[in-house]
Amino acid sequence: SPDGKYIAYTDTDYNLWYVNIESGKATKVDTDGYAHPNRTLNPIWSPDSKWIAYVKLLDNQFKAVKVHNVETGKTHQLTDGMSDAITPVWSEDGKYLYFLASTDY
Predict the structure, then answer these.
(1) Which of 9, 14, 26, 104 is the Cys-Cys partner for 32 at CB 3.0 to 4.6 Å?
(2) Where along the chain do its domains lie?
(3) pTM score, whole prediction
């Protein structure tokens, strides 16, 4: 994380984790249910180190952008899951989260 307090990582069982460096406590954020060649769950920290953004493959085989708050432990799906959404990137000030989406509106 930008503040140096956490490390986010994925394991070979398709789990997304973060570990508190000081305490050593690991917290599981999510699990991807599919072995996908374009690996998902790649964590992206917000500039304030409060949020982890990532992409998860949904049951309908579309990818959705999700965010996890490390302070509350809550996860929110940001995209509707009706088309692929990938590659989340935080703005430098952390106010915005940008991503690519395959929509046809």
Answers:
(1) 14
(2) 6-101
(3) 0.91
